[in-house]
Amino acid sequence: MNILYPKSNVIHLIGIFIVALLPFGAWAQPCESNQPAALTVVGVTQTTGTFSWEAAGAIGGEGFQFEVRTFGAPGSDIEPLNGYVTGGSTFNTSVTVGNLDVDTEYIFYVRYVCSEISASVWNSIPFETLELMPPVATAAAFVENDSFLAL
């Protein structure tokens, strides 16, 4: 006995079979082409860092995901004990992160996220926050009998 299927079901089954034959992640290839490029440190203070990058294509999808770490792989554990400091997402091609420690070495990471299951590889750049500068000493002086006396 032959079972006949309407053409739409056959096409649907064939489509599932073809997708099943694709290697894992093959549908993520277009996202790789929008990896952030020309990542630069725009400015650093004692507690902040500002970064910018270029988008290779149109910004859509989920935008850009970024992280600041002292060590550890980006996208891994987001616990401070594992090097994670801060992170977030944006549709802009620049971001300023704050609440950083003075005179500390960090790595800024950014990637483009197409969807929940597809993202570009991380791009990174190291940076160091500035030292806490000691207060500038000021000399006190007063005039006595038309001459200056330093305190």
What is the strand and helix layout of this fold?
Elements: H1 7-21, H2 29-32, E1 37-44, E2 49-54, E3 63-69, E4 84-90, E5 94-97, E6 105-115, E7 118-119, E8 123-128, E9 141-144, E10 147-150
Antiparallel strand pairs: 1-2, 2-5, 3-4, 3-6, 6-7, 6-8, 9-10
Radius of gyration: 27 Å
Per CATH, the superfamily of the domain at 29-128 is Immunoglobulins
The major sheet is characterized as: 5 strands, antiparallel
Q: What is the CATH third-level topology name of the domain at 29-128?
A: Immunoglobulin-like
β-sheet strand percentage: 35-45%
Low-confidence stretches: 9-29
Outline type = elongated
Description:
It is a single chain. With 151 residues, the protein is mainly beta. The chain has a domain of 100 residues: Immunoglobulin-like. Helices cover 13% and strands 39% of the residues. The chain has two helices and ten strands. The strands form three sheets. Strands 3, 4, 6, 7 and 8 form a five-stranded antiparallel sheet that branches. A three-stranded antiparallel sheet has the order 1-2-5, with no helix packed on it. A two-stranded antiparallel ribbon has the order 9-10. The longest helix is centred in the first third of the chain and has 15 residues. The protein is elongated.
What's this model, at a glance?
The protein contains 2 helices and 10 strands; from the N terminus they run H-H-E-E-E-E-E-E-E-E-E-E.
What attributes characterize this protein structure?
151 residues, Immunoglobulin-like, mainly beta, 2 helices, 3-stranded antiparallel sheet
